[in-house]
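Support reply, case 0932

Customer input (verbatim):
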Amino acid sequence: MWVGQTYYFTWLDGQFSRLEKKAAGDGIPPQLWMVHSGGFYTVAKQKSLGVAREQVRWFRWEALMTWVSGMVLLVLVYYSSSGLIDPDVASISQAAGIAIGLAVLAGGWIIYDLAARSPLGRSEAMFAAFSLSVIAVLAWGLMHVFSGRAAYIHLGAVFGTIMTANVWFRILPSQRKMIAAAAAGARFDASLSAQAKLRSKHNTFLAVPVVFIMISNHFPVATYGNMYAWEILVALVLIGWAAAKVIREA
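Our regenerated output:
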């Protein structure tokens, strides 16, 4: 549900961006018509709030429940079992491995968030190059600390943590301020909307690699069990980004 909503609203935003350019000439407010489940649906993008703030529908619990369920599985499958450490890879204790895993999740969000708010975040090409470099280093490092399967899953968990933190710590606060300003009849800071839009866009590019990493568990010979495991992991991320771009523009 979360991934579907992310792509749906990103698609809506792209459609309205094109419609608004066309509407600039004829002055007709753009509307988007859709058909589904035996009915027609029309969506119009509003610049002001026409209902009470409590009537605005939020989409946030799907993200949190996805992350919580993922963390429960991470604990059950890796942190409370023997799936995390491979003695042939690194001679470390289970406790050390858990500490490293949790530090990677927290550190991944911090590095991403700082980069997104820095001048790097204003250049799509530079941000993508920086992100790919960090991902490559992280993939290589994880493959030299954890079992191959755990390394793959931890990179996916980093992406999932970034996506959830984007929703709760960056997108929702901006939206709350937008709603409060609209409810008061005041103009809201356009930069708030832009930052929320940017984080939503990043989430669409993270979602497909996360799915690829999840299903890699079923193809060990071609992924984490391969002699080029970390390179394949980086390649999966790149393929995921390309797929996300195609889906976004479809």
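We compared this against your earlier run and they match. Two observations from our side: The longest strand covers residues 31-36. The helical segments are 2-26, 61-79, 94-117, 124-143, 148-183, 190-215, 229-249. Please reopen the case if you see a mismatch on your end.
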